[in-house]
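Figure 2 data, in text form.
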Amino acid sequence: MKEIITQTQLFVYETFEELPTDIQNLMNQAVEIRKKAYAPYSKFRVGAALLLDNGKVVLGSNQENAAYPSGLCAERVAIFYAGANYPEAKILKIAISATSDLTSNTTPIPPCGSCRQSIAEYEFKQELPIEMYFMGEMGEIYKSNSLKNLLPFTFDKNFL
């Protein structure tokens, strides 16, 4: 038997003000769109802002449905919109902010597994890592230089 060891590298910004100005702007957009999330069931609101290589910023918020599997997370709303409307554009950066209507959250909240797989698909498609920033309602912000830090064993077209 062999052992495989993986390593994850994340960078931690202690405060919002510590972020580069362009990322502060992107994260502010994620926070604002988060407020428009349709989350009547979970009361958990997520906003995502993508920066594309054409300079466009694409926003998404989670959209729930009474038939739970039919809802969609903020990250996938934004990614699929970008893919549909700007199919040749590359996603350079994504900022994600999440919070609950029921409790205060100061812990950075990463994308769920389905969103990680969707982000991985676009990293693979564009052959370029996507810089990711994620936070809770407030507090520390985590940065990952690639989705591969959050999902080291990706499933991609090479397995098909």
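Caption note: The radius of gyration is 15 Å.
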